[in-house]
Amino acid sequence: MKTLKTTLHGFMITLLCVLLLCGCDSGYKPIEGVISDYDDESKIQVDIDDKETSKTSDNSAEQTTGEFSVKAKKYAFEGNDLLILDIHNQTNKNCNIDITVNYKDESGNVVKTEKQNFTGFAADYQNYFLFMPGIVFADYEYKIDAAKHDGDCPAQNVVFEKSGGWEEVPMRANYKNYDYTVYPTIIAKTKYRNNNQCSIVIADIQIILDKNGEIYKVCEKTETMISAATDIYKSTTIYFTKEDKLTWPEELDGDCAVIIAVQSVTVH
After folding, report:
1. Phi, psi of 34 (to 5 degrees)
2. Three-class SS of residue 6?
3. What pLDDT, in 10s, does the model give residues 26-63?
4. Residue 184 CA to chain centroid, in angstroms?
């Protein structure tokens, strides 16, 4: 009897996790108002392939037409250009998406192409995508291909919140280079809340904007595990000095911001 009770208890927990994940009620709210002056905004019509259901007699997949909203912003950064796309799934379908960006020179020729994908891009979900081709480009074009997603949608249930302003703290500079000296450091804290009822692993890139709205730093991609229904605070090093006293860089002395480009969210 004890074994049966334990088994049923475990089953109910598993079922609860599945229901909460698969319900796909939008809970994701990006940090608002980060980019106020996009270069362009567009509505992209996509055909959402459903390869698993409603097959016709000629065995082709049923398609649903829907709309994605895309906002784009080009930045100069460290001698090259980069592109941020703010993509919003305005269909009523959970999707897997492929994003293709073509970069063009002054003559309109495509000089480089980049692709990214995202699994479980839920209906009404919104996310930033960072494209860094490592070149200077004059223009760009993008397209989105979408397919119906029948699995979990945990990404939409992760909420981000900027936690106050930048802070000055003493930190060790670089463990990778065996530099354990403590230096005056400026950090940004961001709250990540996992509203899923199961643990997740989130991979993301933080992009730091200075008070002028220009990109100050692009952080390395990180992967973080967050327990079910839990908040964590991620501290990002923005600037440090080897001087005894920190003098704040002028471009950071004001209303700076963080953009979080989610790469993936998986159930752990």
Report:
1. -70, -50
2. helix
3. 444 446 668 989 999 999 999 887 765 433 334 445 55
4. 29
